Amino acid sequence: MTVFWFLFNACQYLSIASVGIALYILVSGGLGLLGNLKDAHQSQAMTQTRIDPRAQKVLVSDEALTVELVDGRRISVPLSWYPELVKASQGDREKFKLLGGGLIIYWPNLEQEVSPIVLLRETSNP
């Protein structure tokens, strides 16, 4: 519980990318903090579809930002949510990097970052 409290409070001081990467490492068991929890649910996960909110494909049109996730889900939001992307040329929109294995979509030329996890949260709670 202390680790989650730290991550929650870290959001005030760190970029979305830093918190997203830290959360991914934590959840994936990279630090060994959730290893037992991961093992306990391994047999259940084998019978269910795996949820994986990492981006694998990103499309930016004049109207929308569309993100295809590793688990097959597709999220599409109005481009107007991201004014820097609206103002950018199509060439700059296509120059993004996937950080943290796809937990963060980053446009270095625009200094814009988008988290698929945040997109999921925002689209599920209109």
Short description:
The chain is of the alpha+beta class and 126 residues long.
Number of strands: 6
CATH hierarchy class name of the largest domain? Alpha Beta
Major sheet strand order: 1-2-3
Q: What oligomeric state do the depicted chains represent? A: single chain
**Which architecture name of the largest domain does CATH use?**
2-Layer Sandwich
How would you characterize the largest beta sheet? 3 strands, antiparallel
Overall pLDDT: 77
Basic shape: globular
Q: Tally the helices.
A: 7
Distance between the termini: 28 Å
Strand content: 15-25%
**Helical residue percent band:** 40-55%
Poorly predicted runs of 5 or more residues: 31-37
Given helix and strand content, the structural type is alpha+beta
| C-alpha-based Rg, rounded | 16 Å
> Into how many domains do the coordinates divide?
2
CATH superfamily of the largest domain: Uncharacterised protein PF10387, DUF2442
Q: Tell me the CATH topology of the largest domain.
A: NE0471 N-terminal domain-like
Q: What is the H/E string?
A: HHHHEEEHHEEEH
